[in-house]
Structure formats: structure tokens, C-alpha cells
Amino acid sequence: MKKTQNLNKINLFEGLSEEQLIKLESIAIARELVKGEQVFAAGDEAKGFYSIEAGKVKIYRESLSGKEQIIHIFGPGEIFGEVPVFQGSSYPASAVTLTKSTLLYFSRERFEKIIREDPGLAMSMLALLSGRLRQMVNHVAALSLAEVPSRLASYLLLLKSTQNSSILELDLPKGQIAAYLGTIQETLSRVFKKMNQQGLIRVERKTIEIIDADSLELIASGEEQL
């Protein structure tokens, strides 16, 4: 498969012409990383951004006490690290691979040269950044306003959508899911158990089957309590 076909699967580059993709291909640098390898650390100078061809990457921050807060998990076709790049600042959070991953690196200097010559690509970047801002606002609102069952229901429905299946492979250990949802593992386990007992989900060792998506939708929206 040509690399330009892979680039077209990246959300930032969807719908671009073959000519535009060839320009982007010329500046992309492939990186192969093992599971648990750091991509960048909070405070590093943001000299470029990344897209994911294969694998998963966790974006997180650590408090002074060492507590980890997961900001987002990115998968194939998504980009990360782009906001500080175009602010000319440092990365505000760290990134680490959750699985063996193949990344494409785009330097700020070379990418900016391309978008100065191509307003269509600049508009695509603007649309992506607007969507990313909305995503972050929704996540912060969910953490601050919603109860844990609502947060978990929303998370499971998101996995159902992204994996296009009712049988979900958890993309994180439960301890990290708890951190992402702003709770602790013991509380998360109790909510999982209650959802299982009420017939909303079926919990297996490494998978979760969604049995009653409609009820999860109501719990996620706050219209029903668990």
C-alpha cells in the first residue's frame, strides 16, 4: 500500500488531493516504538506533532505527588501533540505508547511551510483543533459534573462506537481507566459489578459485552441512575 493512502486515513488529512498527500509524505518521518516507550515528556520543546499508523498512545500528566491523570488515548488515524507545536511552546503533557506502535512525525517548520502554501490544509487543521477543543471541554465537564456511573457509561459507549462492536476490548488496564475517568480503581470495580448485576453489560476477563446500550445511554446522559 502506498504511504499516501495511509496518510489519507489520518483525520487531519482526510479528503486531501493526491498532490497534497505527496507533499505531506515528503516530510513525514516514520518511527517504530515498543510498548511503554516515551514519545515526549511534559516540558519538552514542541518541535513537531505525530500521527498514529498503528498502535495506541496515552497522553497524561503527573501531579507533584506522582498521581497520574490520563488526558486522552489516541489510536490509528489520529494525531497528537499538534496544539503546542502551533503555539510555539512546550508540550504541556507527556506521551507514551500503550502498545507496539508506528508513528509518523511531522516537524513544525516543514509542516508550516506546506500550510502557508495550501490554505485548504490550513482550514483542515483549524477544523481539527476546533473539534479537539470541544472534546476536551466535554471531558472536563463530564469529570466535574457527572457521577462515576455516568462517566463509565459514556466511556463504554465511546468504545462501542470506535470499535464498531458490542464486544469491547478494553484499551487500558482498569486502574488507568479509573484515572482517565477521574476516580479510583475500587470505585470503578464496584460500578462495573453493579452494571453486570443489572444486566447492562457482561464482564469477561479481557472484554466487556454491552447488553443494554439504551440503558447505558440514559445513564450517560444523567436521565437514569444506576
TrEMBL record:
InterPro entries: cNMP-bd_dom, cNMP-bd_dom_sf, Env_Response_Regulators, HTH_CRP, RmlC-like_jellyroll, WH-like_DNA-bd_sf, WH_DNA-bd_sf. Transmembrane segments: none annotated. This is Transcriptional regulator, Crp/Fnr family. One of its GO terms (cellular component) is cytosol. GO terms for molecular function: DNA binding; DNA-binding transcription factor activity. It comes from the Bacteria. The keyword DNA-binding applies. Residues 12-115 form the Cyclic nucleotide-binding domain. Residues 146-214 form the HTH crp-type domain. Keywords: DNA-binding, Transcription, Transcription regulation.
